[in-house]
Amino acid sequence: MTLDDSASYYWKEIIHVPPKDYINVGLVNIGFGTPFITALELRPLTGSMYETQFGSLNLFARYDLGSTTNELVRYNDDVYDRIWRDFNLDGTTTISGSSTFPAEYNDTLPDPPHIVLSTANTPNASDSLYYRWVPHNLTDQFYIYLHFTEVQVLKANESRAFLIYLNGELWYRETVIPSNLTTTSIYSIITATAPKFEISINKTSSSTLPPIINAIELYNELVLQRINRGDVSFHIQSHNDRIFKVDIETNKKDGTLEEKKKQFIYSEVLNITSNLQRVIGKGGFGKVYHGYIAHTQVAVKMLSPSSTQGYNEFQAEANLLMSVHHKNLTSLVGYCNEGTNMGIIYEFMANGDLRSHLSDRNPKVLMWEDRLRIVVDAAQGLDYLHHGCKPPIIHRDVKCANILLNEKFQAKLADFGLSRVFPTKGDTHVSTKVAGTPGYLDPEYSTSNRLTEKSDVYSFGIVLLEIITNHPVISKGPDKTHLSQWVRSRIENGDVENIVDPRLRGDFDVNSVWKAVEVAMACVSHTSTKRPTMNYVVNELQECLATKITCHEMELKDPIGVISMNVESEVLLPLAR
């Protein structure tokens, strides 16, 4: 923010979903003066209306259309303290009504306040309303919110109905018929990008009255940059929706942006990777190169011009990595977007992917306890995407090759190019073109195109079966048997030991294996409603790990390796499932 007029006041507003129970705010001097702040206000929002695919929302415009007071509207009129500027669209007149909104309106709904909705713009002569704007940057991605309330009492022979267009194309597929004292808010969680925008609202052929609009909100996607420490820093902590701690610190040193999550030019990428010297991975997107930033190892994923993954998936992965933060998800360091040179720079995972460690060609065998720790990590990462992100995210390509291991063999989910943001609260699925890896694909999703979080659960179940058995997901024989069918046919007799990876040479706890198999088979149920949630899966696998650790500790206490337990065999070895 640049202040160039001492006689005016400025404010900046964003909508931000904090991943933790505190927020750090820093003011950084970028060379044009001393940073200062007069006031910092935080207001909790309720409801699920302000949702994004990734990142936070930066307010571009918020207009109270048809206002007769020529004043800003904010708290107390708006309980969320959103600031509404008065504005009139070109070629319009103001209409209002005498109806009174219910007293509890502002306390129960996230819609605009009733004082904003009590007036509207309607066209003077034509049958259409127009609103045009030009973005500050050509790459800005906009979220558009339009609010409609009928402010007049229509006669029996009158009707008001209209369609909404964006840049000449139908934006909302249904006819809008505003109701009296009821708000219709039209918005999309899919962003729009263009050099200029025009919203046109056109009455239908059957409508006797021209269209109206009461309020407009425009937001663009905001990618927040981390700072080590600003010239002025604020640490705000909250509890039960109330702010109870604010720490203010000053720093006399120049504020510097952290190296993480920054944009790199292609020449910097070449320097980081020593001219793309060392290839550490390949995929449908292109190649992954090893590199260094300062003395820290990184992986650089470059998009090939002939990539089957495509620019949209590549951009989706970069955006998602900017917005999610979890110990079991790969962390973004930065990105490059220079012409045809596009790349993602993320943390280096020293031990590669899980698939390579299960391979018979790898002389080192992952022990059973290590496998359980890895699968618990991966489950926690997936559970965070489903239940820790707002809105939830579906990975859509969960497989062993997309589970990476760091130097301590901590597992992290990777490759978010196919990930999809789940719809608003209350919706049950996303209708989308089927994408993913054969063998891991949810059969229900494959036939219906209905993507749900249970589609990820199915894929995770296949990963869990792989970790247990080290058997191909689809057999190489002529019958092409699927892994889930192969396991099911062998555990019907209650003998689980014959399906366990032979490279373990019997070094595993039967009880924890049984439990893991039961969890996996529940995950791969053909009916999605019968599959557990990832939260349940995490809890069950943690119990598996605890069982294995307890067994290992008891073995250490008894050097002979014989454990005397007064427990019935039915408990130690479950009946056939």
TrEMBL record:
<keyword id="KW-0675">Receptor</keyword>
<dbReference type="InterPro" id="IPR001245">
    <property type="entry name" value="Ser-Thr/Tyr_kinase_cat_dom"/>
</dbReference>
<dbReference type="InterPro" id="IPR024788">
    <property type="entry name" value="Malectin-like_Carb-bd_dom"/>
</dbReference>
<keyword id="KW-0067">ATP-binding</keyword>
<dbReference type="GO" id="GO:0005524">
    <property type="term" value="F:ATP binding"/>
</dbReference>
<keyword id="KW-0472">Membrane</keyword>
<keyword id="KW-0723">Serine/threonine-protein kinase</keyword>
<keyword id="KW-0418">Kinase</keyword>
<dbReference type="GO" id="GO:0016020">
    <property type="term" value="C:membrane"/>
</dbReference>
<dbReference type="GO" id="GO:0004674">
    <property type="term" value="F:protein serine/threonine kinase activity"/>
</dbReference>
<dbReference type="InterPro" id="IPR017441">
    <property type="entry name" value="Protein_kinase_ATP_BS"/>
</dbReference>
<dbReference type="Pfam" id="PF12819">
    <property type="entry name" value="Malectin_like"/>
</dbReference>
<keyword id="KW-0812">Transmembrane</keyword>
<keyword id="KW-0597">Phosphoprotein</keyword>
<protein>
    <recommendedName>
        <fullName>Protein kinase domain-containing protein</fullName>
    </recommendedName>
</protein>
<feature type="binding site">
    <location>
        <position position="301"/>
    </location>
    <ligand>
        <name>ATP</name>
    </ligand>
</feature>
<dbReference type="InterPro" id="IPR008271">
    <property type="entry name" value="Ser/Thr_kinase_AS"/>
</dbReference>
<keyword id="KW-0547">Nucleotide-binding</keyword>
<keyword id="KW-1133">Transmembrane helix</keyword>
<dbReference type="InterPro" id="IPR011009">
    <property type="entry name" value="Kinase-like_dom_sf"/>
</dbReference>
<feature type="domain" description="Protein kinase">
    <location>
        <begin position="274"/>
        <end position="545"/>
    </location>
</feature>
<dbReference type="Pfam" id="PF07714">
    <property type="entry name" value="PK_Tyr_Ser-Thr"/>
</dbReference>
<dbReference type="InterPro" id="IPR000719">
    <property type="entry name" value="Prot_kinase_dom"/>
</dbReference>
<keyword id="KW-0808">Transferase</keyword>
